[in-house]
Amino acid sequence: MKTQREALHPGKERGSADRPIRSLKFLSVDLAQPSSGRCRATVELDRPSGEPCVGVAEGAGATDLERFRTVAQATASAILLAVGGENTLTLEGVTVVEALGKRTVFVSVRASYAGQNSVLLGFCLIEGEASRAAALAVLNATNRFLSVG
Question: How confident is the model at residue 84 (pLDDT cuts 50, 70, 90)?
């Protein structure tokens, strides 16, 4: 019996433990503050072909939450470059909460892909580099809907 993914994406290879091979992988995030109160985020994702997808966003950067929002927007831009076409990803919100004693980034993304529209939620624990968690939260939100991660 075929899984839903196999039915939607015939011929896709499977990873170890029968998991799909990720088509986009997080490579890096660079967050710079060229001027007071502003920041610029550059997020690089990798496709299986080795071709990078780079998203860039500029925004307010006076607070952690503003910087997370800018990183999340850069990540959405990189994902759109990877999937191409007439698709859209709109970042609706970013928040940081403490849940079960762990700081966590949550994102809400409105996506339009292959004629389907959905509001997607993603999250990532903040461990180590906080801006990395913001990028991974966007990938977490979009991975199944877009079949990219």
Answer: confident
The CATH class of the 22-146 domain is alpha beta
Can you say how many angstroms the Cα of residue 6 is from the centroid of all Cα atoms in its chain? 23
pTM score of the predicted model: 0.83
What is the token pair recorded at 7? Answer: 């039915």
Domain segments of the chain: what residues?
A: 22-146
Q: For helices 64-83 and 130-146, what crossing angle results, to 10°?
A: 40
- Indicate the residue type of 123: F
Convert 84-102 to b/e letters by CB count within 10 Å (16 or more is b): eeebebebeebebeeeeee
Residue 107 CB coordination number (10 Å): 29
pLDDT at 3: 40
